[in-house]
Amino acid sequence: MALVCKHGETRADTKPRAIHHLKATPETVHWGYFSPDIKPALIVQSGDLIEAEAITHHAGDAPELMFDEGIERLFTEIDPSTRSPGVHIMTGPIYVEGAEPGDMLEVRYFQMTPRNNYGSNLAANWGHLYQEFGEKERVTIYQLDPNANTASALYAYDFPGKYLVPGTITHCPVCDREPALPGITIPARPHIGTAGVAPAVDAPVSTIPPGLHGGNIDNWRIGAGSTMYYKVQVKGGLFSIGDPHVSQGDGEISGTAIEASLNCLFQIILRKDFSFPSPLLETPNNWIVHGFGADLDEAMKGASMDMLHLLNEHQGLSRNDAYSLMSVAADFGVTQVVDGTLGIHVRIDRNLFPQKGVTKDPS
Questions:
Q1: What's the rounded Cα separation, in Å, for the pair 242 and 91?
Q2: Which of 84, 206, 238, 323 could be disulfide-bonded to 93 (CB atoms 3.0-4.6 Å)?
Q3: Where in the sequence is the domain holding 183, given as residue range(s)?
Q4: Is residue 361 very low, low, confident or very high in pLDDT (cuts 50, 70, 90)?
Q5: What is the pLDDT of residues 92-118, one digit of tens each?
Q6: Is omega for the bond preceding 93 within 30 degrees of 0, making it cis?
Q7: Phi/psi of residue 327, nearest 5 degrees
């Protein structure tokens, strides 16, 4: 895949150069924040492949199932007081040689493989219906079937107290476990909930809200076979991944997805030939633009204006034609309503523009 640059121009696909392995250790993760001041965990060149471990901060919801030695080190060796101002365990950052502010990072996701076959969904205090459920928080543990690529609930329990500390470890043998969702199987769709570049700011930026740097976008379509584009804000880009999921619905209404650790294979390509104002997603069939805001109206306006930019600047449509096409062919959806800053995404079929802006990978 290749994004159109300007009125039909495209760039050649970049072949992999080298492959790097980035484990999640106390030395290679940052918990809860993006910052330009973090020392790079890895330095790569454009076109390099990276195998990176993305660890869920909810592994402590069922440590006997979701921990291994490497994950346990993160939970026991990283000071809880440093897990702020957000909650997600971020692997990185990755420094891309030659990346300068204003450039774009093209991140091609090839594989997302569950690290173990379990995940957790928390109906949390930040969930959309927390008050309607009497301010009760509840954990549902899911088991994955990697052969069928499905998930089903294993058990559930009411969380004791209030879930406030990122990386809380719950010793569920002392909880009252209950059956959950009997007879229901859901499709697994592994994806990255939070990823992005370092913002050009002086203070740490929380991983909880999404923004122009990326962050907690929580779009389940950011999985294997997709490509994300992020606008570089600081030298080297400083790209990080985290908040891995194995399934989520649009809205993420309870506050979380099925949170589960993933091993991710992706390629980072430095793009100096085009620019885009917000995180842009390219899937085999669609372009998807994201908008963010304090309310859904603001997020809708942002998504609309950036899709207009895509159609006008990168597909060569007039603004009037682009506006008409958006109304008759683009689909808007609520990405999430639980991350403080709300998210709207809008997708349009790439096949509406045959042979324009898309090149086939010769491999």
A1: 6
A2: 238
A3: 118-187
A4: very low
A5: 999 999 999 999 999 999 999 999 999
A6: yes
A7: -75, -30
- Determine, yes or no, domain membership for 5: no
- Examine the pLDDT at 55 and tell me if it is beyond 80: yes
Contacts of 206 (CB under 8 A, 6+ apart): 32, 33, 84, 85, 86
Q: Which two tokens stand for residue 226?
A: 């997709």
227 and 149 in a common domain: no
Please, is 144 exposed, middle or buried when counting C-beta atoms within 10 Å of its C-beta (0-12, 13-18, 19+)?
buried
Say if residue 85's pLDDT is above 70.
yes
Of the candidates 97, 89, 79, which has an alpha carbon nearest to the alpha carbon of residue 32? 89
Domain membership of residue 9 (yes or no) is no
Residues 79 and 45 in one domain: yes
DSSP letter, residue 61: G
- Residue where the block lists tokens 């194995």: 246
**Residue 363 pLDDT exceeds 50:** no
Check residue 305 and report its DSSP letter: H
7 is a domain residue: no
Q: Are strands 239-247 and 227-231 parallel, antiparallel or unpaired?
A: unpaired
Examine the domain organization and report whether 341 and 235 are in the same domain.
no
Reported residue count of the chain is: 363
Residue 66: in which H helix or E strand, if any?
helix 63-66
Query: What is the amino acid identity at position 175?
Result: C
Instruction: Check whether 175 has a pLDDT greater than 60.
Output: yes
Number of domains in the chain: 3
pLDDT in tens, 262-280: 999 999 999 999 999 999 9
What does pTM read for this prediction? 0.93
- Measure the CA–CA gap between 165 and 196, rounded to whole angstroms: 23
Q: What is the CA radius of gyration of the chain?
A: 20
Region of 324 please: left (phi>0), alpha (psi -120 to 50) or beta: alpha
